[in-house]
TrEMBL record:
PANTHER family per record: AMINO ACID AMINOTRANSFERASE, BRANCHED-CHAIN-AMINO-ACID AMINOTRANSFERASE
Pfam families attached to this UniProt entry: Aminotran_4
Known EC number: 2.6.1.42
Keyword terms: Aminotransferase, Pyridoxal phosphate, Transferase
Keyword S-adenosyl-L-methionine listed: no
Organism: Persicobacter psychrovividus
Highest taxon of source: Bacteria
GO MF annotation list: transaminase activity
InterPro entries from the UniProt entry: Aminotrans_IV (IPR001544), Aminotransferase-like (IPR036038), B_amino_transII (IPR005786), BCAT-like_C (IPR043132), BCAT-like_N (IPR043131), BCAT_family (IPR033939)
Name the record gives this protein: branched-chain-amino-acid transaminase
Function recorded in the entry: Acts on leucine, isoleucine and valine.
Family recorded in the similarity comment: Belongs to the class-IV pyridoxal-phosphate-dependent aminotransferase family.
Enzyme kind, highest EC tier: transferase
Length: 353
């Protein structure tokens, strides 16, 4: 392994950093100077390198484009008051990428390559991690097929890459969601628990219909009965009913969010009663009618915590009280303070670059 871990570097002569207005960064449209790349050739990860962020050339018959062997991760790095760059549970992303890879018949990437490539990239582009409150460096590791071949079979060659985008202070507005009872994001036995590109393509059309009906996002339900709550677009869901926290169990169709797992663990440590299991839409609606549905929120790396202010279900809208967001706000501020190194990280979740 030691020899494959030598990472070659071909760095830019001049950084693009001076051209970036950190007070006004459009999400996902500004990229740091460099990217990390590794190629899987002849059954081996090879040619580990850091090079200028830029376009690459692909065969028109690239298999990822045609048959969708393409998986990704999403994570964030933060800067503390002393200028250190901090990551949140990066090895969990490496593990999840490899679980996605297995499901999509792609090779696993040694965690060592994922993590040392990431670390080296963050050392080189560390100045790009913004330090204003609420800002972060969004990190996108991903892997895709590289074979030039027409025909359905797993590719033999792959590429793994990491690039980064500084993201501005994100004041998340509460969102409205529609309970989706016709379309499905994921079916039992399908690829819902993999962070696989195709899952997201399939969700766009139902999401557009919901937007035309005045909702920001969807709450997906199980594909068999459309009765049980699964998750939202790129967030796992949490419900506070009668002071207790409920979240759908990972059933194989739900993306196992690292934020979700961390939030559930912390809530339990705080003494909140946590229920992870099947959660029927009807249960939530009945709780709302009985005045017991206190908070609904999504959790994920991109948003951390995103409050839900309105749930649309069968043509009826159920409004949530935005004044009472005690638990979700406590969760949001807890994660914010450990990620920026403002509060001691007692879980060993934060890693310094
Ligand atoms: C990435 C993602 C999440 C959130 O996962 P985190 O690890 O918390 O960022 C939730 N649902 C879907 C569908 C996702 O793609």
């Amino acid at each position: 392994m030691a020899e494959t871990l030598s990472i070659s570097e071909n760095l830019v002569a001049e950084s693009n950093l001076p051209q970036v207005d950190f007070n006004n960064i459009p999400f996902g449209r500004v990229y740091t100077d460099h990217m990390f790349v590794a190629d899987y050739v002849d059954g081996q990860w090879t040619d580990l390198r850091i090079e200028a962020y830029g376009n690459m050339s692909l065969s028109p018959a690239n298999m990822a484009l045609h048959y969708g062997q393409s998986i990704f991760e999403g994570m964030k790095a933060f800067k503390d008051a002393d200028g250190n760059v901090l990551m949140f549970r990066p090895e969990e992303n490496a593990k999840r990428l490899n679980r996605s890879a297995e499901r999509m018949c792609m090779p696993s990437i040694p965690e060592e390559i994922f993590l040392s490539g990431l670390k080296r990239l963050l050392e080189i582009d560390g100045d790009w991690v913004p330090n204003l409150e609420g800002t972060a460096l969004y990190i996108r590791p991903y892997m895709f097929a590289m074979d030039e071949y027409v025909g359905l079979k797993p590719s033999l060659n792959y590429r793994f890459m990491i690039f980064c985008c500084p993201v501005g202070a994100y004041y998340s507005q509460p969102v409205s969601v529609k309970v989706e009872e016709e379309y499905s994001r994921a079916a039992s036995g399908g690829t819902g628990e993999a962070k696989a590109a195709g899952n997201y393509a399939g969700s766009l059309y139902p999401a557009r219909l919901a937007q035309q009906q005045g909702y920001d996002q969807l709450i997906w339900t199980d594909s068999i009965e459309h009765k049980y709550i699964e998750e939202a677009g790129t967030m796992n869901l949490m419900f506070v009913m009668d002071g207790e926290l409920y979240s759908p169990a990972l059933s194989g169709t739900i993306l196992p969010g690292i934020t979700r797992a961390s939030v559930l663990q912390v809530a339990e440590e705080w003494g909140v009663k946590v229920h992870v299991g099947r959660l029927a839409v009807e249960t939530v609606i009945e709780a709302h009618r009985a005045g017991k549905l206190q908070e609904v929120f999504g959790v994920g790396t991109a948003v951390t915590v995103s409050s839900i202010c309105r749930i649309g279900f069968r043509g009826e809208d159920f409004e949530l009280d935005m004044e009472n967001r005690e638990l979700s706000q406590k969760i949001a501020s807890y994660f914010e303070s450990i990620r920026y190194g403002k509060q001691e990280d007692t879980h060993g979740w934060i890693e310094k670059v």
